[in-house]
Structure formats: C-alpha cells, structure tokens
Amino acid sequence: MDSLASLIIFLPGILLALTIHEFSHALVADRLGDPTPRSIGRLTLNPIPHIDPIGFILLFLIHIGWAKPVPVNPYYFRNPEKDFAKVAFAGPLSNLILAVFISFILRFLPYSSQNLFIYYFYKLLLSTYMINLILAFFNLIPIPPLDGSKILSIFLPFEWKLRYRMLEPYGVLILTSFIVISSFLGIPIIDLLVFLPARLFSILLIGTSPF
C-alpha cells in the first residue's frame, strides 16, 4: 500500500512537470517563428506526445529519466543563437514558475494528518513542487543534451562553441558518466548543482526545505 500510495503521489507530479517543461520549449519556439513543434503535435498540454517510454520507466526504476526532446529548427529564428537559448531556458523557467505557484498553495493549505484527503493532497502538492524544482535545476547543468548546455553556448567564444557542440552526440554518455563517477568518488556534484539551489529556493518560497 505504501508503494502504491507513493506511486499515486509521484505520478501526477512527474507527468505535470515533464509536460509543462516540454510544452514551454514548444510554445517559445512557436512564438519565435519555428512551426516545427506545432506541426508534429508537440504544442500541447497532453502528456502523451511528450513522454519517452524508456525514459519514463527509468524514472521509476532508478529516478533518472527523460522526456522526448522537442525538435526545434533554429533557421526559422531571427537570431538563431539567442532564440535557441531562449527556447532552452523556457523549460527550466516553466518548472520554477510552477513551483512558485504551488508554494503559495502549500503556505496556506491547512495540513492535517487526521484527514486523509487533505493529507494526501498536501503530499501530492509537495511532491509536485519538489519534482519541478529538481527538474529545473537539473536541466540547468551545462552538459549536453541538457538545457543548460544550450544556454551556456551563447556565452562561449566561437571556437569553444564549435568544440562544445561536438560533444552533443555523446551527451547522454557524458552526463551518465559524470553522475556515476562523481558518486563513486564521493563528490556531491549533483547535490551542489541541483539539491543545494533547490533547498535555497525552497527556503525562500515556503520558509523550509523538504529536500
């Protein structure tokens, strides 16, 4: 029952966070003139087109996964480099905005462990809040294919930019190796890059950290 309850609490939060994240990429790309996301059905709040089956299953098995990236054609943009970075930043920003919205509800929702409906509703909101913060800060890590790499790219000198982009086909391998090696060496890289800012942001929003 505990596992089922945890699944019920976790599932809506991760679906909402991933959907808002990918929809925001698609929306900003569409507003900047790229018809690609709209033409392939990604400009939607329906979670199904955004879900990658393997990435979604891995989220539950090892708590690391992914959604389907939104295809973007920067040749439609007026300023391809900067607009592409705007599209990338839209995903993490949308998760932060959603976390801020949920934080207002958490501040004023009367918590009660006696009332099961209120108890599980509070847990659902808290889980969704935490997932959005983690997803936002994780995606800001500047390692391909994460959004942070596309944002960092606009600040690099031209020669470095080209070399940096050459890493993208190996991004998943680099990111996985980065996480595994830092964990093996006992270096809290993910804690510093993801959970520390999530804690600080959470203290600012709700006065405490659930992490």
Structure commentary:
The chain is 68% helix and 0% strand. With 211 residues, the chain is an all-alpha fold. The longest helix has 30 residues, at 2-31.
Apparent shape: globular
Q: What's the story with the biggest beta sheet?
A: none
Percentage of residues in helical conformation: 55-70%
% residues in beta strands:
under 5%
Instruction: Estimate the mean pLDDT confidence.
Output: 88
Q: What's the structural blueprint in terms of helices and strands?
A:
Blueprint: H1 2-31, H2 36-39, H3 53-61, H4 80-108, H5 116-139, H6 147-153, H7 158-165, H8 171-184, H9 189-206
Helix pairs in contact: 1-4, 1-5, 4-5, 4-6, 5-9
Task: Give keywords.
9 helices; 0% strand; single chain; mainly alpha
Can you describe this structure in just a few lines?
The protein is mainly α and 211 residues long. Helix content is 68%, strand content 0%.
